[in-house]
Amino acid sequence: MILATTEGLRKTLPLVFGKKAAIADQFFDKVFLTAPEMRQFFPHNYGRRKELFATFLTQVALGAECDGVMEQVAQQLATRHRTLGVRPEHYRVGNQALAEAFKTTLADRLSAEELRRWIDVFTRFNQRLAELAA
Model confidence over 21-32: pLDDT tens digits? Predict the structure, then answer.
């Protein structure tokens, strides 16, 4: 199950979405610094990566309160990632990078509780992706 405490995600989505480019930049910088080999999963079109990242943020915020939706998103993403050779440990790197990107970009705009909720949902989602990749 992916469900997490989602109260406040929808409320803060416009703020998070407004910072999507900065969050994406921080995320990818942290991923590539921690695990340079993961750059192979993102070979082209940095702008497209940011668009996909924004779509992912939206899907998580809008689907987090419905486990069936989140499971479907996880299954689809895991299937795509499997063809690229993504392994469970890559999801751990991504999750840590995403948490750090959220903290760096939004700590002064979200309450500690709102930030915790976002990170909790992404952590549960990434745990599920790692399970599917195993």
Answer: 899 889 989 999
Residue 3 resides in a domain: no
CA separation for the pair 99, 85 (Å, rounded): 23
Could you tell me which of 81, 114, 118, 80 has the C-alpha nearest to residue 98? 118
How many domains are there within the chain? Answer: 1
Q: Which domain holds residue 15?
A: 9-133
The per-residue pLDDT for range 94-115, each reduced to its tens digit, is 999 999 999 999 999 999 999 9
Q: Quick check: is 17 in a domain? A: yes
5-21 burial, b for 16+ CB within 10 Å, e for fewer? ebebbeebbeebeebbe
pTM of the predicted protein model: 0.84
